[in-house]
Amino acid sequence: MSTLLYVFAFVSGFAALSYQVAWTRMLSMTFGSSTLAASAVVAGFMGGMGLGAWLYHRVGDRVQSALRAYALLEIGIAISTALFTLLYLRLPAWLAAVATAAPSVAELTVVRVVSVALLLLVPAALMGATYPALCRALIHSADEVERRLGWIYGINTIGGAMGALVAGFVLIEWLGSSATVTFSNALNVAVGMGAFALARPQSGLAAQPDPSQVDESLSSNLPYWVTGLVLFGSGMATLGYEIIWLRALHYVLGPGTYVLSSTLAIFLIGLGFGGIFYRTALRFGRPEWNLGFSQLGVATFAVVAVGGLHWILVDPAIFDRVSAFARDAIDESWSVRLASGVAVAVILTLPATLWMGLAFPLASRLFLGSVSALTSRTGLAYLLSNLGSITGAIAAAVWVLPALGTVNGTKLFVGVNIALALLVLLHARDRRVRIAGAVCAIVPIALAMMLPDRLAFYPLIVRENPQLVKMLFQEEADLGTVQVFSRTDTPSALAMSIDGVIIGCTKAWNAGLYSKQLILAHLPMSLDRGIRTTLNLGVASSSTIKALGRYPWVETLDAVEINPAVIRASSSFWDSVVLDDPRATVHVEDAVHYLLKTPERYDLIINDAKQSVKFSGSSKILSEEVYRYSLDRMSECGLFAQFIPTTHPPESLRLILRTFIEVFPEAEIFLDAPSSIMLVGSRCPVGGRDRPTRDELKKAKVLREIEGIFVKDATSLPALWVSSGRELVEVLGDGPLNSWDQLLLEFWSIRLPPFERSVLAESMRLVSDPRAANPKGDWPYSALPEYETIQLINEAIMRSDEPGRAGVQALLEEIDRRAPSHPLLRRVRR
After folding, report:
1. What pLDDT is stored for residue 804 in this prediction?
2. How many Å apart are CA 46 and CA 31, to the nearest integer?
3. Distance in angstroms (rounded) separating the CA atoms of residues 501 and 461
4. Could you say which DSSP state residue 739 is in?
5. What dihedral do alpha carbons 611, 624, 592, 401 form, nearest 10°?
6. In what order do the strands lie in the sheet with 494-498?
């Protein structure tokens, strides 16, 4: 029957991590994707679990049957998580109302953190209480402490790993976050009912003696304060490593929910199997010795993990074979890339996590003292470990990564493990053990001294041209590694990257990306002369804000940037002078967070957040919620502008367009071929507004910029229009939306097939073809002189990216006859 209880432990752990994955997504609507979001969820979840484990003996021991107490906890988890999840979904709107009355950002932050902590407290406390409850049900003697303590911890942790994996790979995509919670509720109810069935007298388990009545001591040479310190310190180091390594592994594995879920699962599997090896470890000496050497094992293999990662990054042969950022990876299927990434994560992190998993049951066993103190001591051990985990997670995200980086941050936590090991082994009565511990400690110290200060991670174009590119700026943090590069032969060619993705540049570096930065500003400004207040979601190289700042009638240049390193990096670009403009204000926080709290109304909101078809984080900024929150912050007839890369295949593009059109009553689509589709949304018709004259554009000093890149006459920029939202409705058809409850785009982007240029033409045709039968229609700017020429150029660009390139030459001849010097003509692949 004890086997069934291990099954219950597995299923309970599975449900707990499924909740955490789902809640993290839900609560990101309250906090956004900031450090504060992750820290609040980790602190609330682990703090509640630790508190519940510690308090269990005060309440749970009063229930005569240990199994009945456990069953009540599981049922309580199902009920509380269901009820509190309903509150999580309403939290953003409630906090948005509070934000208008909060006198300061600091006070509003406190309200957010306290609100989340209170909501997480009850269900997390019930989850934490299941650990001592299971110990009470399964352990009734000193011998069973040795046999079962590690198994309870290990099986429960492995169940959590499977929960994180299944939730990340399947449940969130298929069911959504809310339904994932409901599914996990069912698992808790099933476990609770099963425990009730086992609690019946005839089951054979109900008659087991209560451990509180068993007076069997567990020998230990360690004072309680030492063991308690080890529980706290090792918990701190474990979560510190997890936060740091998730960032470091990104340099090889790339972005994506699947990669993150796999890495987290591997980490938990290592912890779980480390716990299962607890009993085996006891055969090789006293538990005090095992605990000390387990800390040295963690330290040694943590250094080896970072050293192995550094080796992969600096060895071109290995990097090209396993890295998601290698050029060969572009031509591989997503499953091959994922398998390679998982293999790398297993090799690098599993050895260290096995030692980490062994440490907790060893320290818990030494902390018990007596079987009679089982529930109170295991609960307190769990609390101390979780308090350490909270400290490690928050410290790693808030201070260690930004200040020290992945390498030196790892060295810091390696030092914690070594200090704990020496503290434990100093209490060993055997002098040979103390000497062996001191000698073994030299190994991780020596290896750590051989590590570089930083990992050598660069974008692909930099790796392939190391002699032609110079790094001007680098800062590593939990939100991403920000770098700025220049070309040694062209100092004006600058680029900024986050985690290997170029997000901003000068014209000399990449004319296509630079044109996207400019058209995000110039297109909406060419549609409405009445724009006075603007908000940029994202800063990057500041080129878009600088372009907006050229228009003298713009009164407000607000911007939101979540990563402060981006703002510091932008100072490398000449366009960043706009940030010193008295009209400019940069808010350092998450865009969703800002949209929820600000009372301002903007005439123009530009969504310029980082986008890459391979970057799953793009799915959040292309969601229904971000669009609705933006619409709420727009003036009555304000405009919303967004660019979409044409690298999105038609299925993904349909999802994005369907979501955009669902939110904005008026939507117009423009094409900056071949790289960008521009979406403009509003409550009011976009066409027919008062537009700036050529003289006004000349005074704004934007004629040369617009006419050198987009059109021959700057007043004809709206001629890039290709279709309206109403026309696309029939083409898009019925289907799902991309919402934060079910971010389908996140999963579809990960599973994209190898890139082919024909995708560009397919995406461009999706937005252009609805207008093919009636090219001019009723759009007021389709009568502009350059409209027909631009449509011909777009057609030539699309055909040049299609197999066979049929008719491209004839189109080019027609364009040369009409407008031989049109600036868009150079974009056609000849």
Report:
1. 80
2. 18
3. 10
4. B
5. -40
6. 469-477, 480-487, 494-498, 501-505
Instruction: Give, as one character, the DSSP assignment of residue 695.
Output: H
CB 397 within 8 A of CB 35: yes
Query: Which one, of 226, 205, 233, lies nearest residue 369 by Cα?
Result: 226
Q: Is 38 in contact with 239 (CB distance < 8 Å)?
A: no
Task: Report the half-sphere exposure of 811 (CA within 13 A, side-chain side).
Answer: 21
Contacts (Cβ under 8 Å, ≥6 apart) of 814: 792
724-750: per-residue pLDDT in tens? Answer: 998 899 889 899 999 988 889 888 877
What type of residue is 549?
A: G
The token duo for 555 is 């009164």
Distance of alpha carbon 296 from alpha carbon 690, whole angstroms: 71
Instruction: Give the C-alpha distances (Å, rounded to integers) separating 461 from 316, 458, 467, 483, 644.
Output: 14, 8, 11, 13, 22
**Taking a C-beta distance cutoff of 8 angstroms, is the pair 638, 602 a contact?**
yes
Where residue 826 falls (left for φ over 0; alpha for ψ -120 to 50; beta otherwise) is alpha
Find tokens 């190289």 and name the residue.
541
Contact 541, 517 (CB under 8 A): yes
Strand order in the sheet with 602-607: 584-587, 556-560, 533-537, 602-607, 634-645, 676-682, 666-672, 721-724
pLDDT in tens, 153-185: 899 999 999 999 999 899 999 999 999 999 999
Give this prediction's pTM.
Answer: 0.88
The answer to whether residue 128 scores a pLDDT higher than 60 is yes
- Report CA 572 to chain centroid distance, whole Å: 27
CB 258 within 8 A of CB 743: no
DSSP state of 215: -
Cα distances (angstroms) measured from residue 21 to each of 18, 38, 116, 180, 265: 5, 11, 15, 9, 12
Structure tokens at 447: 């290896």
Nearest Cα neighbor of 478 from 39, 167, 116, 28 is: 39
Task: Summarize pLDDT for 611-660 with one digit per residue, the tens.
Answer: 665 555 678 889 999 999 999 999 999 999 999 999 888 999 999 999 99
Q: List the structure tokens of 719.
A: 């001629």
pLDDT at residue 34 is higher than 90: no
Quick one: tokens of 800? 């040049």
For Cα atoms 429, 431, 435, give the angle at the middle one, nearest 5 degrees: 130
